[in-house]
């Protein structure tokens, strides 16, 4: 018999039944894999789409009796409460979370990130269930540093950009900048969950992801998603690279972001799941402060790595500039720089990210190329023929 797995305090980890909402998405699919391949936990996987976990749902696999897929839209399905009732832990990942939607579909964004999450919190409170809720690093909005004059001596001081869960204020743009609809909705649900913890004793953990990337993130327009939709930056740039088009840099690609490999981030979530005493009542930044690049640098890196993994020559024109209004429509705004402070997660969960920017990009673009390059070529030749 295999030795029991132990938590960070040396106690045996008991198998849990986890109700995972949004399990069919990018993060959910990796979390389901981790739980099926490396633990004894069971998953009630809820989503409107199941394609990204279909490989886990085939019958006859070692974990087949530990995962069930429920095709449910949580906006309007009375089965949700029953599934929460039979679970030990609820993880809520369901959301509209693509920047292109924030100012073109602000109502859907607000409903999805706030209103649709309300019954989940309510059922957790009424049934005494622990909740791990996925928020976002967008919650911090703009940095204090971005408001300093250009030539201010503190302009480059990291202290003005380092985002701390328990200190940094949330600074959003004006209401007509609908970009902030997502961050505001996420902030309000965070505040509600925090208040449920304080007033009603709900056991919760809030996760603030800082640009988790890797295989299965979003879709390639016209291949496994609508041709007129804009996915997040990784899929956007991958699509351009596979088509041999220049990568579009919004407003000069000057924004700075940190990127973390999905598999590192999933390790952190597993620690939250299996160490409730250390994770309850906490808000965790989950990112990699060492992997910081401007979006322009990201485009350069992706071009280099894609040429390496595909064997293609480097294009003559690698990038072109577009305005945010052209790319995202009216109401777009951005935050300049986001560096996660890792003090709390290091202290509570003894976790640190491992994968470098180059390595995470190499793993991810190898997957993108193997999965999509042929289909992109076919889609392009079809559109030329018609
Ligand atoms: N990937 C990141 O780096 C990142 C960054 C910040 C925040 N987050 C947050 O993490 C969570 C998961 O993100 P992701 O990258 O996996 O996104 P994703 O879009 O790949 O996954 C979300 C999943 O939720 C499902 N969903 C949405 N509304 C639903 C509904 N009404 N009923 C049932 N299912 C529904 C979608 O079908 C999708 O499969 C989100 O809450 C997101 O805001 C992610």
TrEMBL record:
Pfam families per the UniProt record, alphabetical: Epimerase
Gene Ontology terms for molecular function: carboxy-lyase activity
Domain of life the protein comes from: Eukaryota
Domain called NAD-dependent epimerase/dehydratase: residue spans: 18-287
Keywords recorded for this protein, A-Z: NAD
Alphabetical list of InterPro entries matching this protein: Arna-like_SDR_e (IPR045869), Epimerase_deHydtase (IPR001509), Lipid_A_modif_metabolic_enz (IPR050177), NAD(P)-bd_dom_sf (IPR036291)
Protein name from the UniProt record: NAD-dependent epimerase/dehydratase domain-containing protein
């Amino acid at each position: 018999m295999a030795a029991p797995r132990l938590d960070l305090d040396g106690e045996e980890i008991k198998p849990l039944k986890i109700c995972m909402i949004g399990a069919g998405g990018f993060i959910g699919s990796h979390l389901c894999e981790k739980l099926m391949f490396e633990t004894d936990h069971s998953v009630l996987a809820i989503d409107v789409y199941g394609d990204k976990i279909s490989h886990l749902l085939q019958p006859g696999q070692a974990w087949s009796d530990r995962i069930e897929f429920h095709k449910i839209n949580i906006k309007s399905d009375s089965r949700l409460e029953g599934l929460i009732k039979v679970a030990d832990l609820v993880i809520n990942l369901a959301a509209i979370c693509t920047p292109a939607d924030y100012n073109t579909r602000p109502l859907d964004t607000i409903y999805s990130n706030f209103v649709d999450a309300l019954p989940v919190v309510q059922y957790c409170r009424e049934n005494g269930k622990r909740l791990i809720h996925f928020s976002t690093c967008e919650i911090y909005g703009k940095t204090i540093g971005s408001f300093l004059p250009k030539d201010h001596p503190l302009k480059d001081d990291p202290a003005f950009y380092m985002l701390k869960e328990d200190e940094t204020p949330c600074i959003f743009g004006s209401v007509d900048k609908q970009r902030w609809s997502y961050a505001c909705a996420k902030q309000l649900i965070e505040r509600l969950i925090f208040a449920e913890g304080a007033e009603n004793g709900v056991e919760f953990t809030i996760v603030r992801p800082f640009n988790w990337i890797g295989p299965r993130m979003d879709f390639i327009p016209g291949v496994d998603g609508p041709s007129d939709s804009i996915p997040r930056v990784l899929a956007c740039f991958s699509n351009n690279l596979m088509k041999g088009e220049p990568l579009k840099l919004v407003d000069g690609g000057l924004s700075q972001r940190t990127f973390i490999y999905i598999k590192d981030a999933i390790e952190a979530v597993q620690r939250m799941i299996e160490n409730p005493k250390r994770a309850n009542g906490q808000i965790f930044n989950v990112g990699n402060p060492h992997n910081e690049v401007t979006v322009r640098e990201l485009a350069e890196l992706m071009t280099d790595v894609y040429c390496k993994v595909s064997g293609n020559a480097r294009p003559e024109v690698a990038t072109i500039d577009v305005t945010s209004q052209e790319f995202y429509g009216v109401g777009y705004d951005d935050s300049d720089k986001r560096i996660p402070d890792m003090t709390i997660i290091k202290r509570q969960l003894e976790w640190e990210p491992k994968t470098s920017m180059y390595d995470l990009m190499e793993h991810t673009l190898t997957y993108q190329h193997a999965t999509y390059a042929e289909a992109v070529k076919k889609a392009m030749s079809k559109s030329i023929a018609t």
